[in-house]
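Practice problem: predict the structure.
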Amino acid sequence: MLEFEIAALYYFVAGILNLPAYFDEVPEDMEIPCVFYPSPHQKSGDFSTNTYATTFTLYAKVMDIDNVSAGGKCSQIVHAISGNRYKVPLVDEKGKRTGNNFRIDSMEATKADEGVWQIEISWKRYTRFNEKAATLAREFYFNGTPIAEQIEGGQNAE
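Answer:
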């Protein structure tokens, strides 16, 4: 599945560099120069009683005939995103901008191999728990204190 942020990054980068793009796997007959967008690493954790945060880290690769060319293209991407206040416009399924953005938390460009530069791009997505899980979490806490503590020391204690 292509994350909607990766689609947004693809369209943002395509507006800067007119390069072929590959997703998930690079074919043997790939064109050079190109950009490769693998599946991102994901780390999930609680954010609030209603939402959880997923941190995505994408290791996009820019490939070209030599290090200088690949590094230059990488630099263009990093500076364009940084210059846009680390915001990338979101797009719909047709590639049209929605008017919303997502924010990049960090980027780092490094040489990965001969003619290959990698951009590590991290961002967070906040998602609401399903209603049943959110209700259980709210019921577990009463006035900011776990219900078990309320029962042990409160008026409901026996």
